[in-house]
């Protein structure tokens, strides 16, 4: 579930396009209401249209789902996967077969037991092409899913489309997820993937009650009454586009340890409004926008932790585009003073990135070492940029660089950030103009290849480089620049069967391949910056799954806010 959202405002995912540089997700509890009855007052930056885990694709939806649902595991305060609906599990010596033992007291909010078959049903439903789950590819590690993850023929080719759908039941039967009894789930993977257990904490992997889906049909998850919940909270009421009211779920297996009585989630699209609400004591946790970092960084309850998302620039490498020229792309990269951009434009809300994969998504132990010669200069290199540009112009038989079309989301703060980048490019002779578009239009242009450069952000779903590197494989829906490189693909393929240091080396060399071509230009590694009021404790900031998890939250007697 690649938690991506388009370049623009903070963390999402778990997938779509991530708002990129300015943090905008807010959650919290205000002085006037946070302490009242032990209910947290929180804010979401987008309206939620469905609580169907198979359709979740934005930060706000993930925030709600993490409160009301739970998968086999849950990411705890230490950032580690701990038992959730599964009380324990075993892995075979090859690392390919997982046997989960579900809790006998796991219940849906209607009192029905959560069974292993609920997981089998949910996962097969997610990979069924008729469901059109945006994160079906997150199940690619499970044996038997590959045929189901292939694109369906166009509906205009009626016979081929119908023939493909006719094969789906047989293909679903081959998916290696089994429930030999109500509390045992056996999963067979295509190869060893230690990070897969973390993936099962993502919303796409949550169980689904088949009876509720049958009852609700296509409306499943679109109303509070058209879903059931197995997490710490349940939806009491839902006013679309305005507010969720969540209350503690008495049927949650660990209900006795959930300390707050509920959460009220208000839809507040404006980041500045969320800041004002926090200052007024109406919210207790604020993911601080970059433009407010200086104001809040001195607060004793300000926190800044490494995130798992990267800000990058994608070059369109399709034939006929000027950015299909690697020298031009490398000139674009070398012209960027990332340190200056982070410190002077973003106000310290990120780190300058010499490579794509952020530290939080790299294997532990320092085994992941991208070849030094492929790392990008964080302080820029104007001389190198001009040299690369001259080489590109000679190859393209041009006397001056063409004006490049830079896609950006139509968000004022992001457009201002883009202007800072444009100034750096202009300084070395590369003219660039921004094309601000709303999300739908931007994705449309990106998918059709109607751009030269594109601001893009991606938040990792799990702590492994493949959550970034797989984006740039042929056929991936997020490979907007149409990057294709045989050496890159071979290294990723080899890494798929390697383990330990050998696997890390293959992946690091693969990243080196894409950096060497400058088809993907790293810009920032984002930090998670947030501030809380003194009365709220125990909120988990998860860099891979939900932006903030209130499962362990508590409210102290004092609800005095700070501003």
In words, what does this structure look like?
- With 563 residues, this protein is of the alpha+beta class.
- It folds into 2 domains: 46-267, D-Maltodextrin-Binding Protein, domain 2 (3-Layer(aba) Sandwich); 306-527, Dipeptide-binding Protein, domain 3.
- The protein is built from 15 helices and 19 strands.
- It has helices at 59-68, 116-127, 158-173, 196-199, 210-216, 271-279, 293-296, 326-334, 338-345, 382-396, 412-426, 439-447, 466-469, 486-495, 500-517, and strands at 39-44, 73-75, 81-83, 86-91, 97-102, 177-181, 184-188, 233-239, 243-248, 262-267, 285-287, 302-315, 350-352, 404-409, 432-437, 453-459, 520-532, 536-537, 554-555.
- Strands 11, 12, 13, 14, 15, 16 and 17 form a 7-stranded mixed sheet that branches. A 4-stranded mixed sheet has the order 1-10-9-8, covered by helices on one side. Strands 4-5-7-6 form a 4-stranded antiparallel sheet, with helices on one face.
- Strand 6 and strand 7 (184-188) form a beta hairpin.
- The relative contact order is 0.18.
Summarize the structure.
This protein has 563 residues and is α+β, with helices and mostly antiparallel strands. It has helices at 59-68, 116-127, 158-173, 196-199, 210-216, 271-279, 293-296, 326-334, 338-345, 382-396, 412-426, 439-447, 466-469, 486-495, 500-517, and strands at 39-44, 73-75, 81-83, 86-91, 97-102, 177-181, 184-188, 233-239, 243-248, 262-267, 285-287, 302-315, 350-352, 404-409, 432-437, 453-459, 520-532, 536-537, 554-555. The strands form five sheets. Strands 11, 12, 13, 14, 15, 16 and 17 form a seven-stranded mixed beta sheet that branches. Strands 1-10-9-8 form a four-stranded mixed beta sheet, covered by helices on one side.
